C-alpha cells in the first residue's frame, strides 16, 4: 500500500551531491512543501506534496501538521555499544588530569570494560544494546554500526557478536556488526601480539564467517594496541577471507591511516593525530575518513582535522564512537553540532557526513539519501528551516522517525 507523508516545510533529500570534498550549503537541494511517497519501506518519490497527491490518488495520506524538516535517517558508522558496566571511575580520573594511557596502565581503560563485559550474559548484553539502539533511533539514527572488541577471546567475542545479532531482531534500528577482536592484546593471552592476531585469524574469523555474525573486521593501531606492520598483515589476511576492513587510526599517534589506505580499508576512523601527510593520503584514496567528535569531547583532546580533510578532498563521515570509555555520551547530533562550530564545517558537510558519506564507510548503497528505491529511513525535525537543526546544537530532536522493516544480517 502506497503512503504519502507530508506536507513537510522542507525536504532535504541530499541527492546529487559529491561523494568527496568540501560542500557549500547552496548545494543542498531543498524541496518546499514536500511529500515522501513510500511503499513497502522503499521510497517511490519525493517532491511537491500536492503534486504527488494528485498523481497518486490511491495513496494513503499520513498528514504532517506544523513545520517539519525531513531528512534521511542518520547512519552512525562507528560505535561500541555492546558492553557491560561503565567507566565513570576512569572519567573522573581523566577530568582530574590523568591521561587515557595512564588510566589504562593503572587497571582502567579497555581491559576494565572487557572484564565487565565478560561478566555479563549474552541476554544482558542484548538488552543493553537494544536500549542504546532505541535511544539512538529516537534521535534519528536509523543505522548503527556496532563493534565487538570487549570479549577478546573466542567464546567472549562470539558472545558479543551473537548479542548484536539477537539485538538486531529486537530493534527497528538497523545494526551493522564489526569484529574488533583486535582491540588490544588481552591481558590473559599467553603470547605475543602476532600470536594473538594469528589466533583471531585462525580460530575466530572462520566461525564468524560460518555463522554470518559480521562481514567487517577492525583493528586498533596504536602504541597500546597493535603496531602498523602486524596490522597490515592481519588486515590483508582478513580481506583475503572476504571481510571488509576498517581501522582505528591516528588517534594518539599517526600511522594507522597509512595502513588503512594501503590495505584498501573502507574507512580510517579517529584521525585526531593526523598531520598533513595523512590528510593527503586519505584525500587521494577511496578510504572514508571518519571523525569521532564524541571521543575528543570524552577525552578532552583535539578534534580530527575535519576542515582540512574536506578541503584536501577527502570523503568525511562523522560518527559517535559511543563506548563506555572515551565516548560515553552517545548523542551524535550534539557532538557534531559542537564540533562543526570549532572545525568550521558547513551544514551540508555535516549532513552528508551523517548520511550518504557514512553509508560509504559501511559499503551500504540502499540508504543515506531520499531517492526512489532507497529505504524509507527518514526523520523530521520540528522546525521550518533546516539550519535550526545545528543551531540548537543537538538539543532539538526529531519528532518523527520512520524506518524500513529490514535488517542487515
Ligand atoms: O574508539 N580507541 C580505541 N577504542 C575505543 C575506546 C574504547 C574504550 O575506551 O573502551 C575508541 O575510542
Ligand atoms: Fe572506536
Automatic annotation (TrEMBL):
EC numbers: 3.5.2.7
UniProt cross-references to Gene3D superfamilies, sorted A to Z: Metal-dependent hydrolases, Urease, subunit C, domain 1
GO MF entries: imidazolonepropionase activity
Residue span(s) of domain Amidohydrolase-related: 69-380
Keyword Nucleus appears in the UniProt entry: no
Spans through the membrane: none
All copies of domain Aminodeoxyfutalosine deaminase/Imidazolonepropionase-like composite, residue ranges: 37-59
Keywords: Histidine metabolism, Hydrolase, Iron, Metal-binding, Zinc
Pfam family, one: HUTI_composite_bact
EC top class, as a word: hydrolase
Pathway: Amino-acid degradation
PANTHER family named in the record: IMIDAZOLONEPROPIONASE, IMIDAZOLONEPROPIONASE-RELATED
Protein name from the UniProt record: Imidazolonepropionase
Organism: Mucilaginibacter pankratovii
